[in-house]
């Protein structure tokens, strides 16, 4: 199933509402999570819930980095944009890929 | 009293481990030693005197990983029962009388087995380095440091070859304590802690019935009664804590320290004298770096008003490189400056395994010093941990 932006926003708005103890339509997206009483541990949970919903890895600190809920959602919707279909002819190796730390097994 | 929170000029909490950390901490100490890190919603203390004051102030309460894990358990259906139980048995996160009783139990048991740890330390260093000597080169992190304390614990406890091999997969698990894990990583961490518990629980049950184990027997005698846990269960958890929280810091200290001795400013220290700086290696490497506290009450702190409930992160690495405390040579190893600094913390949560770890690092450096001359044959790969710093690979050759 392809997830569109509206579905993603609706899903995350509900998750935020659950954490904040408010109805979903009362959530002001220009607010910060902090203003809604959502702490940093729950911000990590939100990122994980987004990850679960989207089926792709999301930075655990997404909702901490972005100043407002809207900015975090904008970043999430950018992640669901389809990739470019044609690679650039001058594309080199991805910077840092040979330095990416592997999780210890 | 200043009203606004001073923002950290660099987000060192999000920064990966590596050579960029120390300059970042230097900048923080100079520009914002008590800083608000907006992306992590925490205060960050980087000066030695502030970190020491926080470690010794009971208002700065340890913050358990259980807080986040229980939410993952409840909201995302990750089976975190074992990891929550594991966290419950970490003296790191305990408070009050339970903390006192646990410390007494563990410290007494480790002291009881002190000679065994000492002998096992020497023995395991020799065994691990004999293999390295034979090959003309080895990976200092992977083939030596990352197995050190794990092998020593197995030696003292009497793990058979099969158990040793089965537990090997879990010897470098400190990344499971990090807060910045993806969902698959969280599931993997929870699963590995569960698997480890099954193996250790079985071992503890078999050994405790014999009552001859130099570490398990005193643990069994001293372990405080706990609701919902048998003593054997609690001991298995404690062994898991020792392996997960003990092995990687020792490994990180040895590898980061030797790297500095081979490549850094401290390369002017002859290999034959490495053992003389073993305590300073612990300070320099500070393989336990970022530790979290939560404020129990409003607190004026060095000109700033911290509020009850605020998260405060202390950098032991930065504190241990503070020239205000350690002088002009704080940034390097010093033959004349043998001290561990805050490598093992301070105050009521001072590391219980401090003596064991300190002696093992000394044995490791003694053994390495006796090898033919070492030089790096590759670059060090830092791990992802910022609570516990690790190096997953550091190839060296014998010349």
What are the defining features of this structure?
heterodimer; A: mainly alpha; globular; B: alpha+beta; 16 helices; 12 strands; 50% helix; 11% strand
Structure, described:
Chain A is built from four helices and no strands. The N and C termini of chain A lie far apart (32 Å). Chain A has helices at residues 5-20, 40-54, 62-65, 69-79. In chain A, 44% of the residues lie in helices and 0% in strands. The model of chain A is unreliable at 90-105 (pLDDT under 50). In chain A, helix 1 runs antiparallel to helix 2. With 105 residues, chain A is an all-alpha fold. With 399 residues, chain B is of the alpha+beta class. In chain B, 50% of the residues lie in helices and 11% in strands. Chain B has 16 helices and twelve strands. Chain B has helices at residues 21-31, 48-56, 66-76, 81-88, 96-112, 114-135, 140-144, 148-157, 161-168, 183-208, 216-222, 231-263, 278-285, 316-319, 323-326, 354-369, and strands at residues 34-37, 42-45, 60-62, 137-139, 290-295, 299-301, 304-306, 311-315, 374-376, 381-382, 391-393, 395-398. A five-stranded mixed beta sheet of chain B has the order 1-2-8-5-3. Chain B has a three-stranded antiparallel beta sheet with strand order 4-12-9. Chain B has a two-stranded antiparallel sheet with strand order 6-7. In chain B, helix 6 (114-135) crosses helix 8, helix 10 packs across helix 12 (231-263) and helix 13 (278-285) packs across helix 16 (354-369). The mean pLDDT of chain B is 93. Classes of the chains: A mainly alpha (105), B alpha+beta (399). Chain A binds chain B through residues 34, 39-45, 48-49, 51-52, 57-61, 64-65, 67, 99, 101-105, and chain B through 14, 16, 38-42, 67-68, 71-72, 75-76, 169, 172-173, 175, 179-186, 188, 311, 381-384, 390, 392.
